Amino acid sequence: MKKGEKKKREKALRRRTARKQAHRQSSLATVSRAELHHIHQARSYPIEGCWTQPDWKEHGLAVVVIARRQPNGNLVFGMYLVDYYCLGVKNAEAHAEVPPGEFLNDYLPRLFRPDPPVDISPALAHEIVYGSVEFAARYGFHPHADFRLAQYVLDPPDVHRRSGAVTFGRGGKPMYISGPHDNVDAILLQLERTAGEGNYDYLVQLVGTAPVRKGSG
Length: 217
What we know:
The chain is of the alpha+beta class. The protein has helices at 3-28, 33-40, 100-112, 122-137, 147-150, 184-194; strands spanning 47-52, 61-69, 75-83, 88-98, 118-119, 175-177, 201-205, 211-216.
């Protein structure tokens, strides 16, 4: 890589980090004190259910939702957008004091549209989320900033036995598939630093076109 191009990518990575920090501050500001209380206490509440999309194994991207029942009957839940091919938790959010009917009829359909979700076991839900976080960390990628709060809806990482059936990466190495809000240059620079040449693949979406495979790093 040329020296000028490398510096450009490094500056892009710093800008991305600053944007993530600003987003974290603004996101947490919208959570009420009552919600924060139940989110921080969520691990002491029983799990009501866990869901993901039916085809989660096919595209490297899974939406995982875990809900718990509060003592007053309302629900607290966490949503995790998981890139288990490369980046780990790309988005996360947590909500509390949600009436069960509103959760089932509004939140779940909206999070999984257009197809309804499928039930999964708590063990599988935790394996997808934590496994992706650990895989991404090998290459210097951290969970979305709001995972700091949403993680309290999860059990600790060592509670559920892992099946080993969830595959992270593709073909034994990271496979980066670009999203609409990704800083592609910064991510590829990070993979070049941490995985090394020939040890990762990527697929970049060009604006206004179908996805175009760029090859291996």
